[in-house]
Amino acid sequence: MSEVLTKAAARNIFYGGTVFFFVVFVGLVGHSVSTVNEMSATHPVTPSVAAGKHVWEKHACIDCHTIMGEGAYFAPELGNVWVRYGGREDAATARDGIKNWIKSMPTGIEGRRQMPHFDISEKELDDLVDFFKWTSEVNTQNWPPKVSG
């Protein structure tokens, strides 16, 4: 066997690798599309969820919080805040708890990070909580690994 890689062998490795990884890429895209289509059929986005996402974006919550692991790490993960407030067991109490927490900010407790006060209407709060509930129901394949975020 030759100690030197020939041009033909290098070309074959390049083209073979390109074809192999292109096939892998197409397979992964197909899997992603089928997963998203399946999720949108079983887990539709309602108008209140879309409005809640708009409230999330309007107030730039992602500047401090993460949602499903994306965003800043200054404040808690909010993709599972519905679960942490007990929304699966008692939806009404969880809804009221999340809304009251947001309304009570900032608390003024010394030495704690504080969320700024946002003038959010009751409708916007309900939409935001619907968005949090919707996100908690997305299959994130156990991400984040801890419930606390």
UniProtKB/TrEMBL annotation:
Keywords: Heme, Iron, Membrane, Metal-binding, Transmembrane, Transmembrane helix
Record flagged with keyword Metal-binding: yes
Keyword Plastid: no
Occurrences of domain Cytochrome c (ranges): 47-136
Gene3D superfamilies xrefs: Cytochrome c-like domain (1.10.760.10)
Residue intervals passing through the bilayer: 12-33
InterPro entries: Cyt_c-like_dom (IPR009056), Cyt_c-like_dom_sf (IPR036909)
A single GO molecular function term of this UniProt record: heme binding
Name of this protein: Cytochrome C
Organism this protein belongs to: Paramagnetospirillum kuznetsovii
